[in-house]
Every structure is written in structure tokens, then in C-alpha cells.
Amino acid sequence: MKIGKLNWDDLNSIIDNNRGSIRDDIRIRGGIGEDCSVINFGDYECVVSTDPITGADHNSGKLAVHINCNDIASSGVEPIGILVTILAPETCSLYDIKSLMSDINEETKKLNIEVLGGHTEVTSAVNKMIVSCTIIGKGKRNSAVSTSGALPGDDIVVTKKLCLEGTSIIVNDYEEKVKGILTPEEIQKAKNYTEYLSVVKEGIIAGKFKVNSMHDITEGGVLGALWEVSEASKLGFKVYSERMPLSSITKKLCNRYNIDPLRFISSGSMLITTHNGEKLIKELNKSGISGTIIGEIIKDGHILVKSNKEEIVTPPERDELFDFHEKML
């Protein structure tokens, strides 16, 4: 099998056929595009999600915290605790494990999140350090926003720049190879993209704004996230390539390595649908967060407008990052 997420149909079938018991106290169930489950606890609800880090060699602790917290943020509630599982290869040292947990500790302190527990072991089952986290959030009853809540006519907003995560991974993992493409200043700037991977702040702002749906843009890039929102909401989308916010550094790397930036892992950006995108962007701007309207939700169809021509967007496949890694081998 190819490295990366399972394809859309296979994953959907596995999820639908293996849900266990269906409980009345689960308000929102995880699924394709719905990264969080929401559990009713009376006046409050608990939001949970889980994700591993497998595609990066550097900053895996930092990435693990932020991609999981971003899932909770996409529900518009505050993350409060995290459980960490570390599977380490026999070649790693105690220092490696301590360093990983130190990074996790540093990031959780920044976000006011407690490390609740987890599991650590050295195993021959892996050949590189794998960290997987489960994140827990808390909100008032019926406050969590779902991915499936998009409505026809909604503006589609993305925050900050796309591909922050993918760009930072390339530069951190392959610094020597990119020295002929980027200046020293650009390399340092791209490394610092890891400081902008959290979307917790914009998630909470958008939750208070009462947006219709949210989804953090991770593996599969913005087109993958759009597909998941549209499928979960049983609607379509029409977006414009020229409106996509990309840094000049990302454009250089994508052009050099033939990477499609719209299908490139993009933690650090939140995809939001709302009836008033301009007003939401003004609210985001007050907290120093940029936002861009890239299109709108439509009744059906998955359309990307590129150079004034409409293209049909196909279901997401594996992220461009994995193809890039294979090219570098």
C-alpha cells in the first residue's frame, strides 16, 4: 500500500462499518471530515480528537501538540488536556525521548494545556520516533461547531498562509538541499513557520462569532479540507486558485519540487464557512490574524477556478509531502 492516508472510499467504509455501539450522549460523531467527537455532559460537553505525527523528523513534539489542539480549535472550544503515546525505535536514546517530551511540555504550557498521561515504549515495530496524541476540550452545551454545518452561500475563509507546516517540514528536514533555492534569511523565516501552526486563537474567535462550520487544514491541503467540509455538509464548493494565500517561500519550493500547494499539508490555517466572511476577517484582524475569502459554498459540485477556467476537484489522495519525501530518498 502507498504511504499516507487511506483513500476516501476505503476509509469511509472502515469507519461506517466499525462504530461499535451508538450512544445517545454522543452529539457529534467523528468521521470523514469530522475530526472531533462531542460528548454531552449536561451543562457542558467534552470534545475529543486524536492524531499522530509520521511525516516529519524535526519538531515532531511541537507538531503533535498543535495538530491535535487545532482539531479541538476547529470545534470552537478550548483544549484543556492531552494524552501522549511515544513509540521509539531501538536506535533512539533516552535523551531523544526526554527531548521530545520537553518540546511537548513547552508547547502545552504556551497553550495552557495539561499533559494528562499516556504511554512510552521502545519497540522494534517502528524505525523512527512516532508520537500520537489524544486531545480533550471543554465547552458549554451545544457550543461546539461541526465540520458538517456549512450552508449554501457561505463565504469560505482561510486564515494566515497556506502550507506553513509543509514548508517548515521541507526546510527543517532538508536544509542542505534547499540552500540553493532559498536565501539564508528565507530559510530561517521558513523554520520559524512552526511558531504559527496553532489555530486555537482563531478557532475560539470563530466559535464566538457563531460560524457555520470549521475544519483545520492538515494532510491533503486546502482542497482536501474543502472536500471533507463539502462531503460532511452534503454540499459543494467553488474556490479560486488566484485567491489562495501563499508565501513567496512556499511558492519557490513548490515550483522547484513540483508540489501542488493546494494539496500540501497546511496546519496553521483554519478553513471557516460563514454567512459574513468580511465581518469575520475584521474580527480576526483585531487579534492580528489574517483571513482571506477564497470562494463560497454552493449546492453541489467541487470546483476550482484557475486562470478563469473551471476544474473539477477530485477526492483527496495522499498528501504531496509523502511524494516529496520519496523524491528525496
Automatic annotation (TrEMBL):
The lineage of its organism: Bacteria, Bacillati, Bacillota, Clostridia, Eubacteriales. One of its GO terms (biological process) is protein maturation. Gene3D superfamilies: PurM-like C-terminal domain, PurM-like, N-terminal domain. Residues 152-303 form the PurM-like C-terminal domain. It comes from Clostridium fermenticellae. Belongs to the HypE family. This is AIR synthase. Residues 33-137 form the PurM-like N-terminal domain. SUPFAM superfamilies: PurM C-terminal domain-like, PurM N-terminal domain-like.
